Every structure is written in C-alpha cells, then in structure tokens.
Amino acid sequence: MASEITYAEVKFKNAPPPPAETKGVSLPLVPPEKSTSQSAPQKPTWRFLRLVSALLLLLCVSLLIALVVTLLKGTGGCEEHKALPQSSAEWHCVLGRAEVKGRVWMCCPMGWKRFQSSCYYRSIDTMNWGDSETNCTGMGSHLVVINTGTEQDFIFDWTKRIFTSISDRSYYIGLTDQAQEGQWHWVDQTPYNETAAFWRQNEPSNGNMENCAVMHIETKANRNWNDIPCSTKVHRICETAATSF
C-alpha cells in the first residue's frame, strides 16, 4: 500500500514578496535611492575660484587707476611739479586751505619752509647775487620775491633765529636795479611797489654800485632791506610755489 504525501503551503509573516518574474529576462537588483535632503553639499570648482580671484584683481586695479587719476587732477599735471627740485626724495605736507579747491595738502621738499602757498629755502653757504639767482633757478625756484608785509614778517622772524655771526646776517632777495640805476625790479617780473618795500632808514643809498638788495638781520625792526654791491658774497633765500594735492 503506497504511503500518502501531504503538501502544505507555509507563509512567513513580514517576509518580502518574491521578485517578479519576467520571462527570459533577469532584472538586476537596484539599491534604493538616497534621500536628496541628506546628500552632502558640492564643493566649488577650481574654475569658479579662479573667476572670483580674477574679478577681485580687476577691482583692485580699477581702484588704483582711479586714485592716480584723482591725484593728477588735483596737482594740475606734471608742469606744476617742475616748479620744485626734482632731486628731492622726500616731501613735507601740511593740511591747508585753498580758496577754490577747499581743504588741500600743501607740500614742500624736505628742508624747505612753507608759508601760505610758497616754499622757501635758506642757504648755509654764500655766493654773489648772480650765482645766487642761478643756484635758485637750478632748483626750480628764484630768489625770494616779497609782496606783502605778512610775507616780510615771516621771513624776518624765520631768519633772525639762526644767524650766529656777522657774516650770517644778510640774505639776497630777488630785487635789483642793475638794468637802470634807481629802477628796481623783481626777478619774476612782479611790479615793484614802493609802498610795499621794507628798506632800512636812508636806504637804498645807491652808492658804490650797490645794485642788489639783501635782507639784513640785525635789529628787531622788520624794515631791514639794504642795497649792496652784487659781487658781495652773502647767503640767499629761494622761493617757489608749493605743490597742492
């Protein structure tokens, strides 16, 4: 007698369903996609970083060019700088005021003294009048031209503090009557104004071919001009326009 075989269907709880069968085709198992909200942020590429660097460099160059153009406009160009000694390596600047431009920097070469809109140089060596003027023009200036009582007071106060001997007491200024006796002229062609002159008492004497003017520092009075022979070797005061920025 043949034994009977009993078949039973067993289902497991929570078991994954069997893969779908496709006739003749085997489907690869695909892992589940990761959530986009949990993906790591992408780092910037080198091409993007190079672009940002180039833009920053271009911005810096543009700002530098704008600054140079502004300074050139404020100084009036190269011609104005030719009025100052080109050998000066350093400048001394103070904040001043111009009537038109407003507050500006007024600059003189180191070793020069600024007053209002001019720079002044006081020599420590001595020369005759002609060599003194040549020396001043070689530095882009001229022997000082005194136009006002305020300027005369400034130069007088500035020079009287430093003389140490008799030879130190006279400074050539840019006034001469060499072309015609008694007809005084300034070196920069400024008209000579008798009412704005500061001669000592009984000067100019016009004696002994005394055709060149000096500022003679010996008294407390600021009326101290004197005429002397142009061949006399004394100190000198040069003047030039200050550079503004």
Quick description:
With 245 residues, the protein is α+β, with helices and mostly antiparallel strands. It contains four helices and eleven strands, in the order ααββββαβαββββββ. A hairpin with an 8-residue loop joins strand 8 and strand 9 (225-228).
Helix and strand topology:
Elements: H1 46-75, H2 78-81, E1 91-98, E2 102-109, E3 113-115, E4 118-122, H3 129-138, E5 142-143, H4 149-160, E6 170-176, E7 185-186, E8 212-216, E9 225-228, E10 235-241, E11 243-244
Parallel strand pairs: 6-10
Antiparallel strand pairs: 1-2, 2-11, 3-4, 4-10, 5-10, 6-7, 6-8, 8-9
Explain this structure.
The protein has 245 residues and is α+β, with helices and mostly antiparallel strands. It has a domain of 120 residues: Mannose-Binding Protein A, subunit A (Mannose-Binding Protein A, Chain A), CATH 3.10.100. The protein is built from 4 helices and 11 strands; from the N terminus they run H-H-E-E-E-E-H-E-H-E-E-E-E-E-E. Strands 3, 4, 5, 6, 7, 8, 9 and 10 form an 8-stranded mixed β-sheet that branches. A 3-stranded antiparallel β-sheet has the order 1-2-11, with no helix packed on it. The protein is elongated and about 90 Å long. This is C-type lectin domain-containing protein. It holds the Pfam family Lectin_C. GO terms for molecular function: carbohydrate binding. Keywords: Lectin, Membrane, Transmembrane, Transmembrane helix.
